[in-house]
Amino acid sequence: MTRFKSEQGFTLVEMAAVLLIISVLLLLLVPSMSDGKSRADSVSCEGSVRIVESEINLYYAEHKAYPETLVAIDRATTESPLEYSCQSLVYTYAPTTGTLTKQ
């Protein structure tokens, strides 16, 4: 007489429990990942603004005056020569002081 080995495996309830736990963990993880992306975008934008401010200061060092518009340092379009946009933020340039301020 041959004996059959009892097969070991997961039940349907155990598999459903594992899938439920994985789903809950993913629901908690996804919002934190998108929040991190927006933070990374803002840090990148701040870095770009610092670079533009450095270019304004280099222009001042060379010409002893701030540029009249950001077109002079190739950082603006002709439609808005006193605005610098980064991501969804817009910065206004003040030619008298050479500063960029967030709108």
UniProtKB/TrEMBL annotation:
Which residue ranges traverse the bilayer? 12-30
Q: Which SUPFAM superfamilies does its entry note? A: Pili subunits
Q: Where in the cell is it found?
A: Cell surface
Which NCBIfam families is this protein grouped with?
IV_pilin_GFxxxE (TIGR02532)
Q: Which UniProt keywords apply?
A: Competence, Membrane, Methylation, Transmembrane, Transmembrane helix
Task: Please indicate if the UniProt record lists Hydrolase as a keyword.
Answer: no
Q: Name one GO biological process term.
A: establishment of competence for transformation
Which GO cellular component term is one of those annotated?
A: cell surface
Claim: Membrane is one of the keywords in the record: yes
Instruction: Tell me which species this is from.
Output: Exiguobacterium chiriqhucha RW-2
What name does UniProt use for this protein?
Competence protein ComGC
Pfam families from the UniProt entry: N_methyl
Q: Matching InterPro entries, A to Z?
A: Bac_GSPG_pilin, N_methyl_site, Pilin-like
* Chief location: other
